[in-house]
Amino acid sequence: MYLIELLLAILLVIATIIIVRVYTSYRKVSHIPGGWQITSFLFRIPIVAEYVFINNPRRILQLVKEKSEKENGNVVRVSLMGRNIVYINDKELLKEVIVTKGHNFPKHKAPYEGFTIFGENILTIEDSADENLRNHHKVCSPAFTNQNLEYLVDYSSKSIGKLFDRWQKQTKEYTINGKTVQGYSPADIKNDFSDLTLDILGQVGFGLDFDIFSANEHSEGIEFRKSLELLFTTGVFVKLYVGMNPLLKWAHPLAQQYFGIDHALKYVSSKLDDMISVRKNEIEHQFSLSGEGSDRRDLLSCLIEANYLQKGLLTDDEVKSDAFIFSLAGHDTTSTTFQWCCYELGKRLDVQQKVREEVNSILKGRKPVFDDFTEMNYLNCVVMETLRLHPPVPAGFRVAKKSTNIGKYQIPKGTIIALDLANTNWNEKHWEKPFEFIPERFAMNFDERQKTESDFTWVPFSMGNRKCIGFKFSRYELFTLLSNMMQKYEIITLNDESNPKDRVYEVPGPTINPGNLRLLFKEISN
Ligand code: HEM
Prior knowledge:
Blueprint: H1 2-29, E1 34-36, H2 46-49, H3 57-68, E2 75-79, E3 84-88, H4 91-100, H5 109-113, H6 131-140, H7 146-169, E4 172-176, E5 179-184, H8 189-206, H9 220-243, H10 252-258, H11 261-290, H12 299-309, H13 316-347, H14 349-363, H15 377-389, E6 395-399, E7 404-406, E8 409-411, E9 416-420, H16 421-425, H17 446-453, H18 471-488, E10 489-493, E11 505-507, E12 513-515, E13 519-523
Parallel strand pairs: 1-2, 3-9
Antiparallel strand pairs: 2-3, 4-5, 5-13, 6-9, 7-8, 10-13, 11-12
Helix pairs in contact: 7-8, 7-18, 8-13, 9-10, 9-11, 11-12, 11-13, 12-13, 13-15, 13-18, 14-15
């Protein structure tokens, strides 16, 4: 009996401490409109909730409408267990957090820590003024020169050609609006596009053939790719939920073993070590012979070469971690965007026809090349509108290093700031009819569009000195994939969205994918 009373007393003390902690934390930000934890499923579990920041932007939008609309709707607070996140979706406030008062808002460690599988890297360094971040940028930036983008454009055309070959073998007859057409409807478009961007990543990222479109099931490329995929998905989540959770940390090695992450980690790590060492030797040899670098144009070789030229600013481990981040950040985002783009074009055949006419008038049947990018005005408007309406990365996270005013609100030290990229892209103050797909809202002129890309209203790649380093890479990749697609297939979205059961929906996750998407790729007869 005495024991039960003692236990109850202990529980009461713990509950009181938690309540006091939560209340004290909430009091500091109660002047900011908002509400309690609103995200779904796992996120309601208190221990887990603290470490989860992958939010559903539609839920945030709902909260903005409910709680913050009369206050202008620029800022909304979400209070977790003892922590507060303030979401901002307005261009002026974003500028304050990212630029003018950026020194007070380093990246918030927790949500990025899952990406430190191979150690700290360009994405995860917190302080933007950190000398080390500058070193990462100096070494990584040369991987995104025009020469490399030319290589990307050429290879992306080859890669989508391989996907088309695969589809062609499975071409069938379909009946659309009473007419019989030849085409292909993938069972899971996510898989097909993921194969496509991974194939491009293998070659352009690592100079490796991942053998995705060949029948060789047991090649080295396949093993490397499968291990990478495991690390991208399960590996990141296990690190985030188990490895970083103070209560579950002890189980991290077990979880890694259980999911095969330790094996994948060792494999990718030793493969990257080998590649780095071989290429370093190659580059040193080449320089000693000719004073010039190697002909390899993949991102990894470019990183190694830039690091060699800059006298080893980064360690081999840092180069390895950056290469891993490029592959992680650069493949799912682009594949997701391409899915959304096809979805929108498949619903709007008039828009699609306009893109096709532009592509045909510029390319006249040939493959796209690097220089075509700036000529393809309408195609680029379509890509920009896709990224505005369906930003694959909905938010970035910062933390207030000290108490700072943002707009009219005082943000206490320790508050997490979410750069609400999705809701900035959907902000009615920035965009008319923000939830409609209207590519014409972007200027048909390259320079004018560039102005929009830098005015903080269109932010799918974030902004400032932590803006996505791969933004040009993905834009050139998407331009190449789409112009090839327009020459070969007409896209038809098969979902009947008047039927709620057949609607395409957003699947929240590290990137926001379309769920239940059914597309038909109808062959264009010449
Ligand atoms: C449609 C495609 C893409 C989108 C929408 C996208 C979006 C973003 C966003 C929003 C950020 C900022 C994240 C934050 O602050 O938390 C970011 C950062 C980053 N992205 Fe991308 N990305 C894309 C493609 C790529 C590609 C192709 C690469 C590399 C090949 C890449 C590499 C990176 C890296 C290294 C960072 C960290 C930069 C830093 O913190 O300084 N991304 N990306």
